[in-house]
Amino acid sequence: MHVLLMVFALQNPDSLAVRFSAMTAVTGYEQAMTDSLLTLLPGSTRDRTGNVTLKIGSGTPKRLISCSIDEIGYVVGNITDDGYLMLRRVGGGVRLSPLFDQQLEGHRVTLFGRRGAVPGVVGVRSTHLTRGRPTQNDPPFTVDNAYIDVGATSRGQVLALGIDLLTPISLTKRPTRYGKGLIAAPNAGRRSACAALAAAALTKPRVRGSVLVAFTVQGLYADTAGLNTVTNLQGPFDESRQVSVPVKYGDTAVETVALSDVEALVRDVVQWIAGSR
After folding, report:
1. Average pLDDT over residues 193-210
2. Helix/strand/coil (H, E, C) string of the chain?
3. How many Å apart are CA 129 and CA 133, to the nearest integer?
4. pLDDT-based confidence at 1, cuts 50/70/90?
5. Whole-prediction pTM value?
């Protein structure tokens, strides 16, 4: 009975959407999430780029259905002598709002070092030292203004935590369910679409021909490196599709998805895999 309940929970799109939204996969640093996918999806494999794929059925027609798991994030760009960390953004490019980095200001972050996750917080300007200063002409907060405090007082203490240059960093993930079936979290749209794809694959639908289910990495690079690797290694495909769900407040810390849309996507994907639509 406990095993059946656990399997049901894994297949439940709502539970998977929350679970996936709590994960972090900064583009180029997706291994922890792909490790979870390999455990979740029996028979799946990871290729040389890091994509996780699961083949259902055999023969032709040969189709591909995919989602991209990576997200815009940050890495450590410098460690000061007094133990603060400075950042560099990874992913996004010119398409981002110039205010994107303001989500960091004063908020909790998680650093994924060699010894596991380390909590930190992004500092803000002192209200005492800036009180009374005109602010209307001050430039907006950017990644160059971000200093992370992990409780260290020296560079050596930072290194002892397992944190070094290029350690990936993200906002601390706290997916929140609210209203009538809504979920809010950074990257909730991408993660919920991937959750729907995983839930559909776990139902093991019958397939006409073969379908490759792919959870791709490095999708935020200009050449979508992960998806290209899947196509080059396991293609060509007679048909391909990338899954998505509608979002509100995109590219913010409260990106919001309706769980009813996730459930609808699961049904749609199951039909697509089965070749009935």
Report:
1. 93
2. CHHHHHHHHHHCHHHHHHHHHCCCCECCCCHHHHHHHHHHCCCCEECCCCCEEEEEECCCCEEEEEEECCECEEEEEEECCCCEEEEEEECCHHHCCCCHHHHHCCCEEEEEECCEEEEEEECCCCHHHHCCCCCCCCCCCCHHHCEEECCCCCHHHHHHCCCCCCCEEEECCCCEEECCCEEECCCHHHHHHHHHHHHHHHCCCCCCCEEEEEEECCCCCCCCHHHHHHHHHHCCCCEEEECCCCCECCCCCCCEEEHHHHHHHHHHHHHHHHCCC
3. 9
4. very low
5. 0.88
Residue 1 resides in a domain: no
Structure tokens at 207: 């397939």
Residue 267 falls inside a structural domain:
yes
Q: Say if residue 8's pLDDT is above 60.
A: no
Query: Which residues make beta-bridge pairs with 258?
Result: 182
Average pLDDT over residues 235-248: 95
Range(s) of the domain holding residue 52: 8-71+174-274
Q: Cβ of 204: how many Cβ atoms within 10 Å?
A: 12
Residues 205-229, mean pLDDT to the nearest whole number: 90
Q: Which amino acid is at 118?
A: V
Same domain flag for 58 and 188: yes
Average of per-residue pLDDT values in the chain: 89
